[in-house]
Amino acid sequence: MLVHIMAVRARLASLHVAEWVCGEWILFYATEFFMSAADSPHLFYRRVIFEVEPGLCRVAMEDEHHRFELAVGHDGEQITSVHSQAKRTPWSVCPQAERKLQAFVGQPLRQRISSRLSGIDAKQQCTHQYDLLTVALAQALSPGRREYVSRVRGAMHEYRHAELFLDGRQLLDWRLRGTRIDSQDVFDQRDLRDLMGWAEAELDDPTLEALYVQRRAVMVAASKGYNLDLVPNAGVAMRARAGACFVFQPERADQALRMRGSTRDDVQQAADLLSDWGIPLVNL
C-alpha cells in the first residue's frame, strides 16, 4: 500500500498544482500542451434531479463517486426541514454531515442562488449536499421536475469537453485546458478556480445556476484516470486540503476511511445514474 501511495504522490509531483477536494484530485497542469480528448476512454457523468411539489423539494444526485438524496421541506418562504440519505460516498464519515445540513433550516427561499449563505459555514458542510441545497433554495419556488445532466470527456491532461443539459436542452458546451474554459459563450477564457465572484455579479439567474451545477461536476470529473482506492483515509491529504469541507476537518480526517469499491466503473451513459428515478430526457 505504501508503495502505491508513493507512486501516486510521485505522479502528482510532476504537476504544477494538485489539490484534493472531498474525494477527488483537482489537477492544474503547468504545461500548455493538452492532448485531444475526442477519443479519450475517460467519460464522466453526473445527473441531478429536482422534484418540487407544494411544501417539498426532493433532490437526487449521482455520479460515479457519490449518490445523495435530499428531502427539503418548506413553508413557501423558508426551509423548515432537511433530511438526507448518503447512499454512496467516498469517505466513511460523509453520512455524518447530515447534522450540519440542519443549518439550512430557516434559510429563505430565493429566485437567485448564492454561493455564500448567511449563517452557514460551507467548509463545515458536505460540499456536494451544500451545493444541492443551495440550488434547491431557488428550485423550491417552482413546482415540477427538472433534471441536469453533465457529461465530461477526457482526463485532466487532455483537452476536455464538458457539456451541461437541462431537461434535454444543452446549456453549456465547453472545452477545458485544465480549469480554463474555451467556449463560444460568456465563460470563454474564464478559470473555474476564480470565476464565482464575477459570475454572481454579472450573470442572469439561469446562467448562474447552470455554472454552479457544472462547475462542481467538472471538478469531480478531474479524478478520471486515478484509482482513489489507493488513498487509505482523508488524513493523507490534510496537508493540501485541511478544513476544506466536513470530512477534511482536523478532528475527523484521520477517521474518514476511504470507502474502497465505492467508485462505480460501469457508468456508460446518463441512464446508468439514478435509474430508479426514471429515464433521462437526454441519454448521452
Report what the structure shows.
The chain is an alpha+beta fold and 284 residues long. The chain has one domain (1-284). Helix content is 20%, strand content 28%. It contains six helices and eleven strands. It has helices at 2-13, 98-101, 127-139, 196-202, 205-221, 238-241, and strands at 17-21, 24-28, 35-36, 43-53, 56-63, 67-74, 79-88, 144-153, 158-166, 169-177, 180-182. The strands form two sheets. Strands 3, 4, 5, 6, 7, 8, 9, 10 and 11 form a nine-stranded mixed beta sheet that branches. α3 packs antiparallel against α5 (205-221). The protein starts with a helix and ends in a 43-residue tail after the last helix. 40% of the residues are buried. The model is unreliable at 1-32 (pLDDT under 50).
